[in-house]
Amino acid sequence: MSTIEVRVAGKAIEADGICSYELAPLAGGALPGFEAGAHVDVHLPGNLVRQYSLCNAPGETHRYQIGVLLDADSRGGSQAMHDQIEVGSVLTISAPKNHFPLVEAERTVLLAGGIGVTPILAMAEALAARGAAFELHYCARSPEKAAFKERLGQSHLRSLVQFHYDSGESAQKLDLPAVLGAPAPGTHLYVCGPQGFIDYVLGGAQALGWPQAQLHVEYFSAAAVDTSGDQAFEVRLASNGKVVTVAAGQTVIEALLGAGVTVPYSCEEGVCGTCLTRVLEGVPEHRDMYLTEEEQAANDQFTPCCSRAKTRVLVLDL
Q1: Which residue, among 1, 10, 75, 11, has the nearest Cα to 32 in the 3D structure?
Q2: What are the helix (H) ranges across the chain?
Q3: d(CA 301, CA 317)
Q4: Which of 28, 174, 286, 290 is positioned for an S-S bond with 296, CB 3.0–4.6 A?
Q5: How many CA atoms lie within 13 A of 203 on its CB side?
């Protein structure tokens, strides 16, 4: 996988617990282009790799901008970004990848919760640039927790953005049924934010009859899974017949790496899709947030960073 060296050209406090970082190409020239919804993998100290959405306007190639929330439950990534990465730091990143693309629509509804505003902000910029019909609803616990307020208040976006705060008066809080309304064939909904926020929005949309094809979502982390009943199983590599045992408290990725088998991976939570692997035989137990329900039902691929097996053996296309 190709990587890019960038220099941190700017770091700013955007909200309580949220910093933005401007990344410029270390060697000069232009960065690879990207579409709204894209993210990059950022390599951090301690061999950590984390995904951050690009939130600057698509079309800009002189810089990337990301926003990072200091997570109280950080596994090290956001802590490293906030504490160790400063202006002048050099980072290795991937080229942009997009699992959350905009589709052509007559009308677009954007819903962001907390730090989930980052990919949504790039979408707003892209839609505004082409004069498309859209509205953005940004939900946060309080004004102090809402990032990029100054940018969202600029003239080309101001009339299209509404802020909703948990701490504010009831009149300004998100009225989801009113925002969504009855589904229309040409309207698409995009939502990004914490798990609870996403579940609330998707549940509300489905209750109103919105078809799955018009609902688009990006998760920042996977939902907690009860692992107390996990059992050991085996994976067999189709290329050479090698069998690797996956212990009850071990991921497939960990077992493969321990056996000297290299598989690309990144998030380790089933969110990014980097480790997606074809399954040739056996039935996986899907625990990812990356594949659609239809893709999971096909049982011909899985995410070995978090998913397991329902059968004693999985034969992998490795």
Answers
A1: 1
A2: 77-84, 117-129, 149-152, 176-180, 195-207, 252-258, 293-298
A3: 9
A4: 286
A5: 6
Between the alpha carbon of residue 232 and those of residues 229, 270, 281, 316, the distances in Å are: 10, 19, 17, 16
Distance between alpha carbon 309 and the CA centroid of its chain, in Å? 25
Instruction: List, for residues 100-140, the tens digit of each pLDDT value.
Output: 999 999 999 999 999 999 999 999 999 999 999 999 999 99
- 207-225 b/e (C-beta count within 10 Å ≥ 16 → b): eeebeeebbbbbbbebeee
Strand partners, 39: 53, 97
Structure tokens at 296: 């999971």
Rounded-to-integer distance, Cα 39 and Cα 59, Å: 14
Q: 119 vs 24, 40, 53, 88, 255, CA distance in Å?
A: 19, 11, 5, 25, 33
Model pTM greater than 0.90?
no
**Spatial distance between the Cα atoms of 270 and 220, rounded to a whole number of angstroms:** 10
Read off the DSSP letter of residue 6.
Answer: E
Polymer length of the chain? 318
Q: How far apart are CA 217 and CA 237, in angstroms?
A: 33
DSSP letter string, 34-66? --TT-EEEEEETTTEEEEEEB-SPTT--S-EEE
| Cβ 54 vs Cβ 39: under 8 Å | yes
* Cα 185-189-191 angle, rounded to 5 deg: 165
Tell how far CA 280 is from the center of its chain.
28
Distance separating alpha carbons of residues 96 and 234, to the nearest angstrom: 34
Tokens found for residue 306: 């978090």
What are 175's two structure tokens?
């009225």
Q: CA-CA distance, 291 to 79, in Å (whole number)?
A: 28
